Amino acid sequence: MMSARIGLGSVTRRVAFAPVIGRNQIALRTLILKRGVQIQSLPPSASEEILNAQRLKRPSSPHFTIYQPQLTWLSSIANRATGGALSALLYGFSLAYLVAPDTFTSVNIVEFVAGLPDYLKYTGKLILAAPFTFHFWNGLRHLSWDMGKLLSLKGAYRAGYAVLGATAISTVALVLM
Amino acid sequence: MASSMLLRSMLPRTFASATGRNVLRSASQVRASSTTQYVPGGPIIKGTVNDPIEFPPPSRTHGSYHWAFERLLAASLVPMTAAAFVTSGSSYPVLDGLLGLSLVMHSHIGFDSMIVDYVHKRKFPILGPVMTWTLRTATVGVLVGVYQFNTNDIGLTELIAKVWTA
Fold first, then answer.
1. What is the separation of C-alpha A36 from the centre of its chain, rounded to a whole number of angstroms?
2. Best of A57, A106, A109 to disrupt the B interface by mutation (most B CBs within 10 Å)?
3. pTM exceeding the 0.80 threshold for the entire prediction
4. The three-state (H, E, C) secondary structure of B54-122, written as one string
5. Do the chains contact at A44 and B29, CB–CB below 8 Å?
6. Which pLDDT does position A45 carry in this prediction?
7. Which residues of chain A neighbour B74 with C-beta distances below 8 Å?
8. What's the mean pLDDT in B18-42?
9. How many CA atoms are closer than 13 Å to the CA of A1, on its beta-carbon side?
10. For a 10 Å CB count at each end of chain A, is N or C smaller?
11. C-alpha separations of A127 from A89, A116, A131, A174, B25 in Å
12. pLDDT tens, position by position, B71-110
């Protein structure tokens, strides 16, 4: 495969298929070029470099942004997100206590929380209870898949709705506790 | 051609593909794959399109045993959490300690899965290992912190109970 860049293919084709009368004039006019076309001679191995350079510039088609929202993958990423958030809280508090044990004593923390207004206390409980309960119930759903149960689409959806219901009920119960 | 085929069949499998590739290369003289830069996770593939993908070596420790341990740990968290709900941390400090340890291990495995999924070292040759070791260091720190808190202070379950009803 000769990888030579020539810019005269379409031009000469036009000349060849032009009517016989005007052919010489068209040939003269098109071959005395308005724009200079460079002919670059390349070795056969350069074809792969050109191909890879083109590949790097190609865009990737949208996938993550256009996939239809479904209970399956939404509950899956929500399980990961809630687990990550709760773990970040655990890690953050533990490292803070390690670094500054006198600032983060339980007495200080309980006093600080007790001094907050009621609406903030309820909001805080909601923010903590909802991810925890969702992660808990969806975790049970995940473990049932690991045991081979509920692996059909119907089973997964029914269990998913049950998880959402259980999350709502247990969140309310925890917040009111 | 016959001599190279014989050579290919006698060599161990890892080398056979190399000689096969050389045979291809000499036959067509088109691809210069050794000079092309490989972009991890990108559109430029390693070797030619006929070379198989490289897999990590099979190991039960990183495979089925890891999976089973992860599920058993998660399952054990259910009765431990329920027990922590109904008792107080001060009366059963061993349960409190076990719960704290299991929670930290569960969190570590979860974070590790996120790192493997989103910053795999095949695509992120520097950031991937950096995050893995940062996580391991952080987990060690968290374990020490949890131990200190459970020993010198009231413990995780007591803290949550007190904060909840504050």
1. 46
2. A106
3. no
4. CCCCCCCCCCHHHHHHHHHHHHHHHHHHHHHHHCCCCCCHHHHHHHHHHHHHHHHHHHHHHHHHHCCCC
5. yes
6. 82
7. 139, 142-143
8. 53
9. 11
10. N
11. 12, 15, 7, 11, 62
12. 999 999 999 999 999 987 778 999 999 999 999 999 999 9
**B37 to A143: CB separation less than 8 angstroms, yes or no:** no
In the 8-state DSSP scheme, what is residue A40?
A: B
- Report how far residue B30's alpha carbon sits from residue A43's, in angstroms, rounded to the nearest whole number: 10
B142 near B100, Cβ under 8 Å?
A: no
DSSP annotation of B153 reads S
Binding-site positions of B for a ubiquinone read 118
**Among A91, A109, A118, the residue to mutate for chain B (most B Cβ within 10 A):** A91
**Closest-CA distance of chain A to residue B166, Å:** 5
Q: Please name the amino acid found at residue A99.
A: V
User: What's the complex ipTM?
Assistant: 0.75
Distance from CA of A161 to the nearest CA of B (A): 21
Tokens 């054990």 map to which residue? B76
Chain mean position to CA A155 = 27
Give the residue on B whose Cα is nearest the Cα of A52: B44
Q: Which residue of B has its CA nearest to A126?
A: B164
Q: What is the per-residue pLDDT across B52-76, written as a single tens digit (0 to 9) for each?
A: 877 889 999 999 999 999 999 999 9
d(CA A136, CA B124): 32
Which residue is listed with tokens 């099979």? B58
Q: Take residue A172 and report the two structure tokens written for it.
A: 């309310």
Closest residue of B to A80, CA-based?
B110
CA dist B141 and A19 (Å) reads 85
> What is the average pLDDT value for chain A, to the nearest integer?
88
Residue listed under structure tokens 């309980």: A110
Could you tell me the CA-to-CA distances from B103 to B80, B88, B112 in Å, in that order?
10, 17, 14
Give the integer Cα–Cα distance in Å for A88 and B26. 56
Q: Inter-chain contact A94–B39, Cβ cutoff 8 Å? A: no
Please name the residues in contact with B148: beta carbons below 8 A apart, sequence gap of 6 or more.
A97, A98, A101
